[in-house]
Design a protein that fits this description.
Metallo-beta-lactamase, Chain A, about 25% strand
């Protein structure tokens, strides 16, 4: 039996999260309000179309600052900044943001409409993410949607392993760290919090985002300078966007790729000068199930557009937690459980 409120929480074929009657999150749809949960590209698709079609684009103040730096500018008259735990009412629906630990400014969304209370986690990890409670339907991220992607260590352990790698290798030259925006800035902040005080070099966009992040969390970035290209001849940590990794790994130094898909060990050498460090800004499979258990919604919809093995997550939730669950959009060759 499909709960009455399920029609108010749908994941569309293009990744649009349809909430209530008039809200869409993280992709374009012809709805009154467009929500951007955070500034990653897979959650800002169709933003220009939304800025033209929707009455307002909603995001946290930090997310709007990130979007400006990344060139995803939303016209001022279309912006509606919404802070955590604040609620607005538009056209008979209430919209509220709750904190998500992912990148700076990340938000979860709760919409109350027509007697239904539905929520969407967006990308998140634990601890540090508010659990959305008392929901009729929860739409949940499942980037790592089955145990085969489960890391056997915490992010804090992976960060300590990264610090030990830096301390071991930086005496021989620069340490290059590759990741996506948000993850890079998180690591820049966390290293400083743990007393790592080597100079930082980074491209201007990376530094701008890092300064916004540092301001949000009240952290001093210390010696941070612009990287202008070419070799680096000092003991510094160089932060480079993941898309440029292949063009840099021939330069002298130690090259470190941050990736949550590394599940064999916290640190794995892939060549004498290159390493994978298992660090992610997404929930592990265990954290995902823990979140759903604590939220205890009446029904779960797993985001299969951005996740891996969402079919498995849905079946696991049904069988182990006893909560009705499905995944959207439907895909072929889903396997069995």
């Amino acid at each position: 039996m499909i709960p009455r409120c399920s029609k108010y929480a749908v994941v569309g074929d293009k990744g649009e999260i349809l909430l209530g009657r008039g809200v869409v999150a993280d992709a374009f749809a012809r709805r009154l309000l467009r929500v951007v949960t955070h500034a990653h590209k897979d959650h800002t698709r169709g933003l220009k179309s939304s800025a033209r079609w929707s009455l307002y684009v909603l995001a946290t103040p930090v997310t709007f600052r990130f979007l400006d730096v990344l060139g995803e500018t939303v016209p001022r008259e279309k912006r509606l900044e919404l802070s955590y735990n604040k609620r607005i009412n538009v056209d008979g629906e209430s919209i509220e943001f709750r904190r998500a630990r992912h990148i700076a400014g990340s938000a979860q969304v709760v919409v109350e409409s027509s007697g239904c209370r539905v929520g969407y986690t967006g990308d998140f990890k634990l601890p540090g993410t508010d659990v959305l409670e008392d929901l009729d339907v929860l739409v949940v991220d499942a980037t790592y949607g089955s145990p085969r992607y489960q890391r056997r260590w915490s992010d804090w352990e992976a960060l300590q392993a990264l610090i030990e790698l830096i301390e071991d290798r930086i005496k021989y030259g620069p340490v290059w760290i590759y990741g996506f925006h948000g993850k890079l800035q998180e690591v820049m902040i966390e290293l400083r919090k743990r007393g790592v005080d080597y100079p930082y070099l980074a491209e201007p966009v990376t530094i701008k985002l890092a300064r916004i992040t540092a301001e949000e969390y009240g952290i001093d970035l210390g010696d941070t300078r612009s990287y202008l290209g070419g070799p680096v001849d000092e003991s510094a940590i160089v932060f480079i966007h993941a898309s440029k990794r292949r063009s840099k790994t021939r330069l002298p130094g130690t090259h470190v790729r941050l990736t949550g898909w590394e599940v064999r060990s916290m640190v794995r050498m892939t060549s004498p000068s290159t390493f994978n460090v298992s660090f992610s800004d997404h929930a592990t499979f265990r954290e995902l199930i823990e979140y759903v258990r604590d939220a205890s919604p009446k029904m779960v919809v797993v985001d299969a557009y951005r996740g891996k093995d969402a079919w498995y997550t849905a079946k696991y939730i049904e069988r182990l937690l006893g909560i009705p669950a499905t995944y959207m959009p439907k895909v072929k060759n889903i396997g069995r459980i």
